[in-house]
Amino acid sequence: MNIFQTIKSSFTNLAANKARSFLTMLGMIIGVGSVISIMSIGAGAQSLIFNEIASFGTNLVGIMPGGSEEDAPPASMMGMVITTLTYDDAKAVGEIPYITAVTPYSTGNANISFGDKIKNTTFLGVTSQYVNVEDNEVSSGRFIFPEEDESTARIVVLGSEVKEDLFGEDDPLNKRIKIDKTSFIVVGVMKKKGASLMASRDKEVFIPVKTAQKVMLGIDHIGLIRAKIDDEKNAPLVISEIRKLLQQRHNIKDPKKIDFTVQSMDQALDMIGTVTDALNLFLGAIAAISLIVGGIGIMNIMLVSVTERTREIGLRKALGANKGNILTQFLTEAMIITFIGGLIGIIGGSIFAVLIAKIANYAGYEWDLIISLFSIVLSFIIATIIGLVFGIYPANKAAKLNAIEALRHE
């Protein structure tokens, strides 16, 4: 038999057992589809995170409590409470040349209530320069005044969603609300910023940082300092000056004992890119396990097929078919199952990735649809290798059958 006759015969044999052939392909379909969709979703999620961070601006510098290894996040980002940064550190950083605005952050969760309406949300203790650092605006009323930065004034600026939840269409200005059990006067409402992966500012409220520290949290430290630079090209110099300043203020002589981390947005993107790349690789490897399961399914079904077609194999050998002919026949069937299953998996995985991207975009997130040629080629090559490897054993078993014993098989 030539190769075309072998392929034609393989299709005929597979078509004779359509349900079983489809169930055999299912492992490949799920495996390849999983690899395509997971790698696409991972790339889309990575682009979303990058877009979110980039939206803060490339001329921002973040200062976090706790030291860190190179290209690694500080312990404070892992949920540990570290108390090494203070409000005075933020004030000192604001005096560094090329920094145009700086604000400390002190955050907490609380129930916010007005009348019988209660909402659990996050409050941000910030200074008057917050709107300049974050490029945010007030839609009505005002933000925190500079003279209120160091006071414990009970004033609050509402995020747009909080305002809607508590007041609806009513004007909230000069109304009193409670943050937990403390009474605050509403002095402003922020403009709507929309959905965000990092944090939804529309769902938060803003109070003076000292009020957050002393009144709400009972602490002296802050959780973050964010500074805005006049030009991103000055970021390396500013970062160097911040490190020198804080080392001096914290009396740190040994660089290994630095208790803070300074990062530009570019550095943050590089760090997050390293983490997300590793995560995508890990998820892709997990998805690839289903390809192995699919390969085992192919081997099992092909072994059953060899048993069912023992007399056919014996007849072919009696008519002159050699070991190579039988081996090629069964390997071809395994490869056809793998090829068709892989093709359907690529189409199905791509469709699923498109649906996820559309849902995310509909929800307001900047989700990029990324289906890389690499993921398609990689998953298809792996599927082909698995189909070949797991098809060899049953094909070899069929080829080794004795013609006379095969013809006697019932």
Mean pLDDT: 81
Q: What oligomeric state is this? A: single chain
Structural class label: alpha+beta
Compute the number of strand runs. Answer: 10
Which band does the percent of strand residues land in? 15-25%
User: First CA to last CA: what distance?
Assistant: 26 Å
Question: Given the structure, what is the number of helices?
Answer: 12
Bulk shape? elongated
Main sheet: strands, sense, barrel: 6 strands, mixed, barrel
> Low-confidence parts lasting 5 or more residues at pLDDT below 50?
none
Whole-number count of domains? 2
What is the H/E string?
HHEHEEHEEHEEEHEHEHHHHH
Main sheet: strand order? 2-3-8-5-7-6
Helix content: 40-55%
Q: Using only CA atoms, what is the Rg?
A: 32 Å
Explain what you see:
With 410 residues, this protein is an alpha+beta fold. The protein folds into 2 domains: 3-53 and 271-408, no CATH class; 83-258, no CATH class. It is 54% helix and 17% strand. It has 12 helices and 10 strands. It has helices spanning 3-16, 18-55, 87-93, 130-133, 160-167, 209-217, 235-249, 265-308, 310-318, 323-362, 373-399, 403-408, and strands spanning 60-65, 99-114, 117-126, 138-141, 155-158, 176-179, 182-190, 204-208, 224-229, 260-264. The chain has a 6-stranded mixed β-barrel. Strand 6 and strand 7 (182-190) form a beta hairpin. The longest helix has 44 residues, at 265-308.
Question: How would you concisely characterize the structure shown here?
Answer:
With 410 residues, this protein is an alpha+beta fold. It has helices at residues 3-16, 18-55, 87-93, 130-133, 160-167, 209-217, 235-249, 265-308, 310-318, 323-362, 373-399, 403-408; strands at 60-65, 99-114, 117-126, 138-141, 155-158, 176-179, 182-190, 204-208, 224-229, 260-264.
